[in-house]
Design brief:
The complex is a heterotrimer. By secondary structure, chain A is of the alpha+beta class. Chain A is built from four helices and nine strands, in the order E-E-E-H-E-E-E-E-E-H-H-E-H. The longest helix of chain A is centred in the last third of the chain and has 9 residues, at 116-124. Chain B has helices spanning 9-19, 48-60, 80-86, 89-92, 104-121, 133-147, 162-174, 191-197, 222-228, 313-316, 329-366, 391-400, 430-441, and strands at 66-67, 125-126, 153-157, 178-182, 202-209, 232-237, 255-259, 275-279, 292-296, 302-306, 371-372, 382-387, 403-404, 407-408, 419-423. In chain B, the strands form four sheets. Chain B has a seven-stranded mixed sheet with strand order 2-8-7-6-5-3-4, with helices on both faces. The chains are: A alpha+beta, B alpha/beta, C alpha/beta. The interface between B and C is large, with 200 and 197 residues.
Chain lengths: 125, 443, 482
């Protein structure tokens, strides 16, 4: 199971990658493996407001559906449109294929998230 | 011994021995004593002969009437082929198609059913069917508030059958939906009033055609007005009329629902019937109920399977689109066979006869002194007249002559007193209609 | 290869399969503005085409008469032919729902007497036959709970307790009825954990939904205590009748303390499942809750049956007419055939059969709870999982042996759940055959695991690519030819 060092993680299996004032959000390798073959992603819309700890998208596989919980707050500036046509990309590489890009509202929110080691420990339990 | 229970005393002893108990009661030893010792106070077992005689007696207490009434239940012809086919045990006794490898029969006819509903309605996608037309309409309302999160206002035209409105009200209470009825105008929806009533939080606008009086509605640009307001436009339409009439898609519907009993399903005192539910591709994943799709097996053969299941209760539990976990599967088969038998031409012809007969009856009744048409609106196979006669008395007399008379709209509200709604299908002959008119004429 | 044509693919322009009488009435044309542009593309086939097509389509299904069908929680029992015949009499199928009551006394008698029999069997006061299915019954029951509290001006009760082992419709119905769902953890045997129950009971609780026996076939032995606790906290108890079969004549939900319940007539009273409906899910209530039942209600005055349309406290209308009357007729015939003599035998033999299969296979399959069950029980896959053969694989391999698999991966309590319900009308010989087959498959799982992992091999189609179906949904004929 891959767990890239440079990312932030949260317990509900989302990751955050920070680039300046912006952040990409996606699901972890562990999450895609648990879900199985991803068949659909219900995306939010650009300009939607993301609030930390609330649902913002849903990833569906054949036998499961998982609501994604926002790890940080901010306004959506881009959604990964490629995933709308090819949801299976999440199974292929869930870190390369981010789900939304947001403009961060409060960088201090990142402090409450886990680093790669802590997340690795969580998922190996 | 009993015909449905095969165990001999020897079988029972052998089984108890394997289990390691001395009698069956021991298997119930975990039950509190106070619950035991139930005295089942119901009638004694009947043999097949006795049961058949009993049913004949009950049947003798019923008197099917030649129907001139509709109001949600129409007396269309059921080809004999249908019963033979739906009683095949492979269809009749199977469970929901959870094991697709041995349920291709059920899955295939559901796929055919969905295809036919899409053909009739012009919509992109249909589910595998629902309980009835009224609950399908309620599910459309739920879908709308689910899609348009935070909107809780629903508009309903007064020309929707009041029983359906009652069901909507019951369902609306659950989710604190604000349901607003918009007054009709001369027997049809008041399109401009509906537009004016639309609010920023209106999730859906619900209409029906042909409506409670049988009138064919023209919604003009209502669909566009809805779409500009992001309000879902729901049309409840009798699918049999779609042999002739503009489709819900033509009229701009986002969701098409209705009662498909009119597609050959017997009256059966109100059920089982079948609700249909169809929508656009865009809203497909928000649709309630089962959906069957096409895929391939490991050998590349075409196969059918329940799909988009992540919407459903067994996966989503309290977050599911709907709590529904079945469809009216056998009734969907019923409708599929009906539409296969009738086909492209037959559905049109049966409905055309119904339409012509209804218009004939309409014109003949207007020649009688105690009937007038206060609306003069286009109708299909159902129409409403105003009468000066005592409706209860009239219907009693008709039933004595073997006819089911018109529906009394006064039963819904006093302001509709004297309005009676007739319906005619291809099963009513000219002789029956003339006799019916004669009886009315003598009143 | 199995028959692989759609009815649309048999269509030939101009062919017909119907006949209609010639009408002497003239044409009354509709205005063009009202008409659709193009006639719908329905199939053009002969009557014989239709017969052959649907007969061949039917061959691709496994029905109860095809072979053993131990599908847990679904009560797949024999559907008597006579019930089908009698319910199909013209004197019942030809009745319009709005006929004058004096012309429908026979059918009203059936409805009324069925309401009464269901009440006797379950220990509740009266029933409404209007709900169309089990899930519909649940929704109606929960609406009754909501109206009951609202009528007492107790608006704070917004939560329904559902055990985590419950069927998915329970939480879904509660949410649909506008409640918040509180899941309580179950004990290892799926029974309610009294401590976790106590920890959530307060004045925000509207009620609890339970099955008894529960989803793994265990009797809820603390049921009287549970009922006392919930009632004391001001909540109501809802009984999901999915597992009523082993209780008939043995114990009554009403006596256990339940206030509301539904019965699945298509399960317990064998009105066929019809491939997923039409079913019927009558809802029964205590005397106190009677005014809340949905409208309309069938009642009796003297020797006359009638339909009561309105009750001020009623939750309202939940169906267009009176529910699936045609289904109720079959349940009535089933009840009268079995009578008081045989209903409790149904319960006892369903329990006997389940325990017999459980004891005969527990050395091969992992039995998490080694106790007497009622009508069904759950294995947690094979004991020997070394070759990686799963419940899914075993289920698919059973298809090759002509047996319908048990319910897979439910309840969610165990990773490899396999829920087996061998109903009362299966003989010892059928059960022995099943036991033998299950042992053969267990042996195959060790000797030739690939054979099992790629099963089925003999069905009309093999394992399906379900992801493909969901990723690019093709849901109608025209999606295939586009």
């Amino acid at each position: 199971m891959k767990t890239p060092k440079e990312l932030y993680y949260q317990e509900t299996h989302e990751w955050v990658k920070v680039e300046g004032d912006f952040a990409y959000i996606g699901i972890t390798d562990f999450a895609q493996d648990e879900l199985g073959e991803v068949v659909f992603i219900e995306m939010p819309e650009v300009e939607d407001q993301l609030s930390k700890d609330t649902e913002f998208a849903t990833v569906e596989s054949v036998k499961a559906a998982s609501d994604l919980i926002a790890p940080v707050s901010g306004v959506i500036v881009e959604i990964n449109e490629e995933l709308e046509d090819s949801p299976e990309l999440l199974n292929e590489d869930s870190y390369e294929n981010w789900i939304v890009k947001i403009e961060l509202e409060d960088k201090s929110e990142l402090e409450g998230l886990m680093d790669a080691d802590a997340y690795k420990k969580l998922t190996s339990e | 011994m009993f015909k449905y229970l095969p165990h001999t005393p020897e079988d029972i002893q052998a089984m108890l021995k394997t289990i390691g108990v001395k009698d069956i009661n021991e298997l119930y030893s975990d039950m509190p004593k106070t619950l035991k010792g139930v005295d089942l106070d119901i009638p004694s077992s009947m043999s097949e002969i006795e049961l058949t005689e009993h049913f004949k007696t009950l049947a003798g207490e019923n008197r099917p009437l030649k129907s001139f009434m509709g109001m949600g239940a129409y007396d269309h012809y059921t080809p004999s082929v249908i019963r033979h086919l739906i009683e095949r045990q492979e269809f009749l006794t199977a469970y929901t198609p959870y094991q697709p490898e041995v349920s291709q029969g059920t899955l295939q006819y559901i796929f055919e059913y969905q295809s036919m509903i899409c053909e009739l309605t012009g919509m992109d996608v249909s589910n595998a069917s629902m309980y009835d037309g009224a609950t399908a309409t309620a599910e459309a309302m739920y879908m709308a508030v689910n899609v348009r999160k935070k909107r809780r206002h629903i508009l309903v035209s007064e020309t929707v059958n009041p029983v359906i409105v009652d069901v909507l009200r019951t369902y609306a209470y659950n989710q604190d939906i604000d349901l607003e009825l918009v007054s009709e105008k001369e027997g049809v929806s008041d399109v401009s009033a509906l537009k004016d009533a639309m609010r920023h939080d209106t999730a859906a606008l619900i209409t029906q055609t042909p409506n409670r009086y049988g009138h064919i509605e023209d919604f003009e640009d209502l669909g566009e007005a809805c779409s500009a307001n992001k309000t879902l436009f729901v049309i409840n339409q009798d699918p049999s009329t779609l042999s002739h009439l503009k489709t819900p898609r033509d009229q701009g519907a986002d969701i098409a629902v209705g009662e498909a009993q009119t597609l050959g399903v017997p009256l059966s005192f109100g059920g089982p019937y079948i609700g249909y539910f169809a929508t656009t591709k865009k809203l497909m994943r928000k649709m309630p109920g089962r959906i069957c799709g096409v895929t391939e097996d490991t050998d590349g053969l075409r196969a059918f399977v329940l799909t988009l299941q992540a919407r459903e209760q067994h996966i989503r539990r309290e977050k599911a689109n709907s709590n529904i976990c079945s469809n009216q599967s056998l009734m969907a088969l019923f409708v599929t066979i009906y539409l296969s038998i009738m086909g492209k031409k037959g559905l049109y012809e049966a409905q055309n006869i119904s339409k012509n007969h209804a218009h004939y009856l309409h014109d003949m009744l207007l020649k009688l002194p105690h009937f007038e048409d206060p609306f003069e609106k286009p109708f299909f196979k159902e129409f409403t007249l105003k009468t000066s006669l005592d409706v209860t008395q009239m219907n009693k007399l008709l039933s004595e002559q073997g006819y089911l008379g018109p529906f009394d709209q006064g039963a819904f509200s006093e302001d509709k007193a004297g309005l009676v709604t007739f319906s005619v299908t291809e099963k009513r002959t000219k002789e029956e209609m003339d006799h019916f008119i004669d009886i009315m004429g003598a009143l | 290869m199995a028959y692989d044509q759609l009815i649309f693919e048999r269509s030939q322009t101009g062919r017909i399969g119907y006949s209609l009488p010639k009408s002497e009435i003239k044409e009354y044309p509709l205005d063009d503005s009202l008409k659709r542009e193009k006639t719908p593309d329905l199939p053009e086939v002969s009557e014989f085409d239709v017969i052959r097509h649907f007969t061949n389509v039917s061959f691709k299904n496994h029905g109860i008469e095809t072979g053993f069908y131990p599908l847990g929680s679904c009560t797949m029992k024999y559907n008597p032919k006579i019930d089908q015949d009698l319910s199909g009499m013209d004197a019942f199928t030809g009745l319009h729902p709005y006929q004058p009551v004096d012309t429908v006394q026979g059918v009203l008698e059936v409805l009324y007497e069925t309401q009464k029999m269901l009440a006797k069997i379950s220990g509740l006061d009266t029933y409404s036959l209007n709900p169309y299915a089990g899930a519909h019954g649940e929704l109606v029951g929960l609406m009754i709970i909501r109206h009951y509290h609202a009528n007492r001006k107790d608006f704070a009760r917004k939560k329904i307790i559902v055990p985590d082992s419950a069927h998915g419709t329970n939480p879904a119905s509660a949410a649909t009825a506008g409640f918040d769902v509180v899941e309580v953890a179950s004990n290892q045997d799926g029974t309610v954990n009294l401590n976790s129950l106590k920890s959530v009971l307060d004045d925000s609780i509207a009620g609890i939904m339970l099955t008894n026996p529960n989803t793994i076939g265990m009797f809820e032995k603390d049921i009287l205590e549970i009922a006392r606790l919930v009632h004391e906290a001001g909540g109501l108890l809802y009984y999901d009748g999915a597992n009523l079969n082993p209780m008939m004549g043995m114990a009554r939900p009403g006596d256990m303390g339940f206030d509301i319940m539904h019965i699945n007539l298509h399960k317990t009273f064998s009105t066929p499942h019809g491939g997923g409906g039409p079913g019927s899910g009558p809802v029964g209530v205590t005397r106190e809750l009677k005014p809340y039942l949905p409208e309309p209600v069938v009642r009796k005055a003297g020797n006359h049956f009638f339909i009561d349309q309105k009750d001020d406290q009623s939750i309202g209308r939940i169906s267009h007419f009176y529910g699936n009357v045609g289904v109720v007729l079959k349940a009535y015939a089933f009840l009268r055939t079995n009578g008081k003599e045989h209903l409790s035998e149904i319960a006892q033999y369903s329990t006997l059969n389940a325990n017999y299969v459980k004891e005969s296979l527990k050395d091969t399959f992992k039995l998490p709870i080694d106790a007497h069950c009622k009508h069904e029980f759950v294995f947690d896959g094979l004991i020997d999982k070394s070759t990686g053969v799963t419940t899914y694989d075993i289920s698919k391999r059973l298809l090759d042996y002509g047996i319908h698999p048990p319910t897979m991966y439910f309840p969610l309590l165990y990773k490899e759940s396999m829920m087996i319900e061998p109903v009362e009308n299966e003989s010892k010989q059928t059960l022995d055959h099943f036991i033998k087959t299950m042992k053969i498959i267990a042996k195959e799982a060790i000797d030739d695991p690939d054979l099992v992992k790629h099963a089925p091999h003999t069905t009309p189609v093999k394992r399906l690519d379900e992801a493909k179906a969901a990723r690019e949904p093709k849901v109608k004929f025209k999606d295939l030819i586009a």
